[in-house]
């Protein structure tokens, strides 16, 4: 196939994303590329028209071409077009061998996309400023080296702990798995006078087999059962004497042991397995659960009298998704902790922190801590970027996923902002299919071109270039 210079020239011009507008020495339009129509939205065929006519008809607000013809030198103008788009137009003179002006070639650069980039840079700077402000005001929490909060709800909760610690009333802590129920229980013990006299003993009721939990909790006398020690064994509650017993996942405690625990709460005595003489104990009980104990009471799987004995001081710890302000400071706290542990020096880029903020954290603080540790261990650079995050967290930052079927979410409940973005994307793509140029597509949608361009960029829509030949 032979090489055709003219076809190659127009193919090159057509591939340029900036608009190209070519006139003769008198300002009559000779040709333009498709990008010129996309940017300007001029609704008429301008080939053969003089640039003065475009000015007279208010199709352009100014003309770089006229300035080039007048001065004979390169000239730039910021011009507003019917699309509502502002563009930087640079006119370049073309001379023949004798030095006569023969053409003016104008490059039309859409400023809306540049302005969008400027907005993104400005937003990044604002985020950096916010992060720096948080860092500036950041200091370890007053309560304990392990506690870092900024959320008002958590601050109010922690403010009550010294008063709760002074009392001996039973505490029942509610909260999803991983929110820090054990930490709150430990802080209550630390704020109590018991912290100087006795231990804080944690018992995970869900981790001990039901066949062993009675002997582990209450201990046993020698020879109480096959395999028992001859001298017997003290139970975990013995260790908590004059201290605090933290019964985690209390909802998993078998019914027969619920009766025995109720007796301890009422009489302050324990009876070991195989024993006949109750032993006096001074124990403060703190219990925790991620289950609905009231519903269990209604179902008959948890004793009502024990529930009311435990629920003297209820504490509800909100999940991490409901205290977004804590995400940054907790992330920073864990980052410092694991950087020190693994002798690393790392930081998060703002985009990665945005993803942390948007993610729902079903595993709460425990999940956040585990992921930060993983990132510190696996990071190959000093910066933790969005690409380094687990996919499920990166997806939390995606406004909209690529469209598959025309109604990909039919029958499902999805976040409202996602539904709006999906609908916007579908309507914009339909407008591009039905309209050849950017101007008419924007008009059909009832928005200006600059707004349409911003939405295309945000939603990841490629503006389909038409295959029309250059005039």
What Rg do the Cα atoms give?
36 Å
Any guess at the CATH architecture of the largest domain?
A: 3-Layer(aba) Sandwich
Strand arrangement within the widest β-sheet reads 2-1-5-4-3
* Domain unit count: 3
Global geometry: rod-shaped
Largest sheet: 5 strands, antiparallel
Residue ranges: pLDDT <50 for 5 or more in a row? 138-145, 399-412, 464-471
What's the helical proportion of residues? Answer: 40-55%
**Name of the top-level CATH class of the largest domain:** Alpha Beta
Query: Strand pairing plus helix content: what structural class?
Result: alpha/beta
How many beta-strand elements? 14
The end-to-end span amounts to 24 Å
Q: What would you give as the CATH superfamily of the largest domain?
A: P-loop containing nucleotide triphosphate hydrolases
User: Count the helices. How many?
Assistant: 19
What does this structure look like?
With 471 residues, this protein is of the alpha/beta class. It folds into 3 domains: 5-110, Beta-Lactamase (2-Layer Sandwich), CATH 3.30.450.20; 152-317, 3-Layer(aba) Sandwich (Rossmann fold), CATH 3.40.50; 321-395, Helicase, Ruva Protein, domain 3, CATH 1.10.8. The chain has 19 helices and 14 strands. It has helices at residues 5-15, 34-40, 51-56, 64-71, 111-137, 152-166, 181-190, 210-218, 236-239, 255-267, 293-299, 304-310, 325-342, 350-358, 364-378, 391-395, 416-434, 438-445, 449-459, and strands at residues 19-24, 29-32, 75-80, 86-95, 101-110, 171-174, 200-204, 244-248, 269-270, 279-280, 284-289, 313-316, 347-348, 383-384. The strands form 4 sheets. The protein has a 5-stranded antiparallel sheet with strand order 2-1-5-4-3. Strands 7-8-11-6-12 form a 5-stranded parallel sheet. Strands 9-10 form a two-stranded antiparallel ribbon. A hairpin with an 8-residue loop joins strand 9 and strand 10 (279-280). It is rod-shaped. The protein starts with a helix and ends in a 12-residue tail after the last helix. Residues 138-145, 399-412 and 464-471 have low confidence and may be disordered.
């Amino acid at each position: 196939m032979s090489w055709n210079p003219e076809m190659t020239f127009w193919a090159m011009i057509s591939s340029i994303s900036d608009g190209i507008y070519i006139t003769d020495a008198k300002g009559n339009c000779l040709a333009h590329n498709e990008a010129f129509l996309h940017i300007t939205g001029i609704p008429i065929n301008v080939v053969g028209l003089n640039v003065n006519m475009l000015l007279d008809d208010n199709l352009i607000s100014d003309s770089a071409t006229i300035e080039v013809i007048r001065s004979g030198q390169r000239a730039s103008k910021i011009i507003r077009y019917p699309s509502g788009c502002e563009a930087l137009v640079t006119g370049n003179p073309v001379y023949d061998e004798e030095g006569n002006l023969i053409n003016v070639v104008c490059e039309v650069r859409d400023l809306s996309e540049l302005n969008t980039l400027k907005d993104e840079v400005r937003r990044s700077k604002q985020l950096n400023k916010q992060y720096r402000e948080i860092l500036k005001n950041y200091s370890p929490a007053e309560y304990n080296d392990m506690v870092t909060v900024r959320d008002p709800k958590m601050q109010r909760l922690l403010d009550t702990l010294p008063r709760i610690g002074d009392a001996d009333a039973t505490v029942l802590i509610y909260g999803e798995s991983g929110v820090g129920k054990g930490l709150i229980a430990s802080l209550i013990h630390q704020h109590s006078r018991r912290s100087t006299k006795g231990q804080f003993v944690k018992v995970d009721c869900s981790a001990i087999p039901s066949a062993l939990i009675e002997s582990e909790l209450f201990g046993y006398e020698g020879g109480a059962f096959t395999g028992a020690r001859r001298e017997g064994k003290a139970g975990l509650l013995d260790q908590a004497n004059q201290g605090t017993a933290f019964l985690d996942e209390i909802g998993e405690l078998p019914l027969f042991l619920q009766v025995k625990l109720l007796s301890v709460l009422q009489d302050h005595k324990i009876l070991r397995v195989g024993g006949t003489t109750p032993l006096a104990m001074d124990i403060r009980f703190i219990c925790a659960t991620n289950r609905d104990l009231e519903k269990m009471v209604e179902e008959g799987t948890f004793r009502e009298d024990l529930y009311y004995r435990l629920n003297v001081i209820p504490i509800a710890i909100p999940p991490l998704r409901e205290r977004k302000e804590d995400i940054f400071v907790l992330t920073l706290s864990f980052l410092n902790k694991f950087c020190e542990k693994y002798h690393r020096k790392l930081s998060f880029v703002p985009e990665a922190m945005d993803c942390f903020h948007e993610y729902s954290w079903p595993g709460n603080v425990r999940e956040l801590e585990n992921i930060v540790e993983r990132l510190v261990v696996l990071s190959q650079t000093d910066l933790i970027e969005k690409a380094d995050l687990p996919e499920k967290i990166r997806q939390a930052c995606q406004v909209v996923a690529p469209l598959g079927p025309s109604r990909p979410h039919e029958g499902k409940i999805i976040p409202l902002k996602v539904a709006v973005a999906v609908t916007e994307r579908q309507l914009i793509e339909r407008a591009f299919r039905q309209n050849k140029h950017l101007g008419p597509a924007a008009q059909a949608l009832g928005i200006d071109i600059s707004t349409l361009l911003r939405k295309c960029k945000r939603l990841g829509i490629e503006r389909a270039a038409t295959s029309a030949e250059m005039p």
